[in-house]
Amino acid sequence: MVQITATWSDRNLDRFTAGVVALHSKLPNVLPRIVNQVGDRTKTQVTRTLTKQTGLPRKTIVKAIGKPSRAHAGSMSYTMETEGGDIRLTYLAPRETRKGVSAQPWGRRQVFGSTFMKAGRFPSRVIAPRLNGHVWRRLDTAGRKITQARSGVIIPKEMTSGATAAAFEAIAAPLLKQRVEAAIAKLMP
To answer: What integer is the mean pLDDT of 75-89?
Structure first.
């Protein structure tokens, strides 16, 4: 029995073989760096947009987002996590008026009726040390039971909706695609 073997090899096939070998060895080292660069740029935009969307100071948003978990050779994931509940009015530039406290949730100033920050009768209101500068709401008509007033702004919810989610989608995927394609083109001989 006669066996015939045919192989095809030329310069083009050798070049592509070398390119695939180069990609296989170098791309796992380059990809995490690209993911982290795109993640950092996206985090900056998310922070800017979330600051405008919630009405909170930038430093509060930066602290809420914290340090993201970064991509590395074992995991190509850049994760921004945040937690928290309903933000107190204290953090939203409150000012006391006769009708209640005026604050800026979602970047728009509004009055929250039956809330207060100071003690005494108008117009001679004084800062009460026991209130600690917080905004309070009465729970009963006598005014003996009070609780801290909340704004309705929840950072995790705001981070995944509205302008912040749109900013993330507009930046992350297109920029990652562009950077990965550029890296592949550069690594292919």
So the answer is: 90
- φ, ψ of residue 137 in degrees (nearest 5): -130, 135
Distance (Å, whole) CA 74 – CA 10 = 36
Q: What is the pLDDT of residues 121-169, one digit of tens each?
A: 888 888 888 888 899 998 888 878 889 999 999 999 999 999 999 999 9
Q: Which residues pair with 112 in a beta bridge?
A: 101
Per-residue pLDDT tens for 51-63?
Answer: 999 999 999 999 9
